[in-house]
Design goal:
globular; disordered N terminus; alpha+beta; about 700 residues; five-stranded antiparallel sheet; 10 helices
């Protein structure tokens, strides 16, 4: 087929020189006669050809769509002014939480407008910092990102992982920390892996090299764990573990700090993982499976003496800390150390001979110190409702934590565990006044009466007159919690009188595994009901009206936005589904999509599951009867190998071909970018400016 794209008229669109409200003319995507049969029901898939992300026809469609979108965005009068404001706001020194390795301190710093943050090292806290690794030198355009670091226990080497153009594929390199020289070691086709050191080498996980041209779309199979010895080529790496019986599952390795125990984690089926161990002190020691259910989460914290400290929700949906003896490690031999309680345990570390435990209470973090016998010693006083993260190793005498909230930029504190005292170590200087804003938490009823928490951030003095613009954000899936956090991207919207609303939907992890399961598979509609109820609450309580309400979500949140717009199009003025899962009947046939079946189920499971997915799949439930839809801007990227861009391509083609009113239905397709991780700042600023300009313009806002 020579040409699938027909551009109507000679121009890309018909548009008034002074306004954007004239009806747009979109590229016409050819429809093919592709039909699938699901349990006797035939489902047409006319845009199947857009799944081929490397074809000339897809490239032509992408180019034509971007031309329409770019022309529309370029005519928004305040778009460049908004981009400049976003640039000014993010142009401040950002320093990450320091961590100590072998007597030296490491941290990331961004001077303000660097595409990627730089890794520094210094010999003491008040010493001079020098650059250890600058990712900005790895590419001309900032699209090579540093995605992880791992230090050998003898302090001689650092392995680091990079990703290119936002892909999940990783490469591993090694630096000699004494000479600062890059070694010849180079690992390709690693994925979902770090480097875990043992002696003069490390364990990592990788796939066989993919088929050329299908690197970003084919299903990934046969994840393997290897051991790489420094100085050897990758071809000589030792295969440590594989499971041909389960080719789609993930297998990752971690080594205890004393290099005695190798932990092997199996995931990718069910809602949990399995845990196995191998004693590295014994030659040819077997791999011992500690669990075999895949329904619970099992993660090692550390090994001290003969005891393994473990973080788990095994028979405890809000999680607990358990201990196991290396000599009798199976799960039925484990003992409670810190039992489950009313709050959700979200993180656990051993630092300075103590357990630092972080709990979620109504979607906000609280941190506590326990001794290694499981006794609570004290709570760590945090500045306000927000999120916290700690750095430190089991023998460190000092630790640091970073705290953030909606109007509280990430600030670093030094913490004395014994004295339970915090002192400010580093506070950023951002060009805005936090005292001008307020955050409140509300609880609203969903359709079935379940109380859902939501954070609202806005300027002090806001009037509840039903006229305020709202940016409503949600996720609701995969046991992921949306905690408070700071972003300069939201500030121009807030400065212009907007409200940022972040709701904690079922499907997430805010209240434990039962909350998660209440938003999965045949319960997925609960998530959409929760989000719709958030919008209805904001209107009912006079924060806004349906002409001032925008909804945004990414990945699983993109699915959320697509689904609720189809179900309640009259409720929203603007919608932005980002890198969304939009084809619920075929999501599992791409890259790692099969891994999401624990949350979604698949169309191949049974007829009931197929019909449930069909009933909310954004691609398959677009109205075509003249019902007015909100203004929609779909976003995706050409190197997204997690949620492949075909989801957004097919959804957009179907949306533009349907009769949904005159509001714009556009797609923004980023190049040399992926699902979001590692995106250079320059691309982030361009995308953020486009998204907020689209939202603010269509809500009738001005900058």
């Amino acid at each position: 087929m020579k040409a699938r794209i027909v551009l109507l008229l000679t121009g890309i669109m018909v548009m008034s020189a002074c306004q954007l409200k004239t009806k747009l003319v979109y590229p016409v995507a050819e429809k093919n006669d592709v039909v699938d049969n699901y349990f006797g029901t035939e489902i047409s898939d006319p845009y199947r050809w857009l799944e081929n992300d490397t074809s000339q026809a897809t490239a032509a469609w992408v180019e034509a769509e971007n031309e329409v979108t770019n022309a529309y965005l370029a005519k928004i009068p305040f778009r460049e002014q908004l981009k400049q404001r976003l640039t000014d706001l993010v142009n401040y020194e950002r320093i990450g939480i320091p961590w100590k390795k072998n007597g030296k301190y490491y941290f990331f710093k961004n001077d303000g407008l660097q595409n990627q943050s730089v890794l520094y090292v210094k010999n003491s806290l008040d010493g001079e910092a020098t650059v250890l690794l600058d990712p900005n030198t790895l590419s001309d355009d900032g699209t090579v990102a540093l995605s992880g670091t791992s230090f050998s226990n003898d302090g001689k080497y650092m392995a680091y992982t990079i990703s290119r153009s936002g892909s999940d594929w990783m490469e591993i390199y090694v630096i000699d920390l004494t000479t600062r020289q890059l070694l010849d070691d180079h690992i390709l086709w690693a994925k979902f892996s770090g480097a875990s050191w043992k002696g003069d080498g490390f364990y990592y996980s990788a796939y066989d090299a993919p088929t050329t041209g299908k690197e970003f779309s084919n299903v990934n199979e046969n994840h393997k764990i290897y051991y790489h010895k420094l100085g050897e080529p990758q071809s000589k790496d030792v295969l440590v573990f594989q499971n041909p019986k389960e080719p789609k599952r993930f297998y990752t390795a971690g080594v205890s700090e004393d290099e005695r125990i190798l932990f092997l984690i199996e995931s990718g089926a069910g809602s949990g993982n399995n845990l196995s161990i191998k004693d590295l002190t014994k030659e040819n020691a077997p791999v011992i499976a500690l669990t075999n259910d895949m329904e619970y989460t099992y993660y090692p914290i550390e090994v001290i003496g003969n005891k393994m400290y473990l973080f788990t929700n095994y028979q405890s949906p809000k999680y607990r800390i358990m201990i196991a003896d290396i000599a009798a490690p199976e799960v039925n031999q484990w003992e409670d150390l810190v039992p489950e309680n009313e709050s959700v345990l979200s993180n656990a570390q051993i630092i300075g001979g103590h357990l630092i435990l972080t709990y979620n209470k109504d979607a906000s973090n609280h941190a506590y110190v326990y001794d290694l016998d499981g006794k609570q010693l004290h709570e760590i006083a945090l500045p306000t409702l927000g999120s916290v993260g700690f750095s430190g190793d089991k023998d460190d005498k000092e630790t640091f934590y970073s705290f953030t909230s909606f109007t509280y930029p990430a600030t670093i504190f030094k913490y004395d565990i014994e004295q339970n005292t915090s002192e400010l170590y580093l506070a950023p200087k951002v060009a805005f006044t936090p005292e001008d804003y307020v955050t409140e938490q509300v609880f609203y009823p969903s359709k079935d009466g379940t109380k859902i928490p939501m954070f609202l951030t806005y300027k002090k003095g806001l009037k509840k007159n039903g006229k305020n613009p709202v940016f409503l954000y949600g996720y609701g899936g995969f046991n992921i919690s949306l905690n408070p956090g700071f972003s300069t991207s939201r500030l121009p919207f807030l400065e212009s009188g907007g409200i940022y609303a972040q709701t904690n939907l079922r499907g997430g992890g805010e209240y434990g595994e039962s909350w998660h399961q209440a938003g999965t598979k045949l319960n997925k509609q609960n998530v959409f009901d929760d989000f719709i109820a958030a919008a209805e609450y904001l209107i009912r309580e006079k924060y806004t009206n349906n002409g001032k309400l925008s909804v945004v979500g990414g990945s699983n949140g993109g699915l959320l936005v697509g689904a609720v717009v189809n179900q309640r199009p009259e409720l929203f003025k603007v919608a932005v589904p980002q890198v969304g899962v939009m084809d619920m009947l075929r999501y599992h046939v791409f890259t790692i999509g099969w891994n999401w079946a624990s949350d979604y189920g698949t169309s191949a499971d049974n007829e009931e599951m197929f019909r449930y997915l069909q009933a909310y799949s954004p691609l398959h439930t677009i109205k075509n009867d003249g019902t007015p839809y909100p203004a929609i801007l779909v976003t995706t990227a050409d190197h997204d190998d997690r949620v492949v861009p075909a989801h957004s391509f097919k959804y957009t083609a179907a949306l533009q071909a349907s009769d949904t009113g005159d509001a714009p239905k556009l797609i923004r397709i980023e190049t040399k970018a992926g699902h979001g991780g590692g995106k250079p700042l320059a691309k982030q600023l361009e995308e953020t400016a486009d998204i907020y300009a689209f939202i603010m313009y269509n809500l009738g806002m001005k900058l």
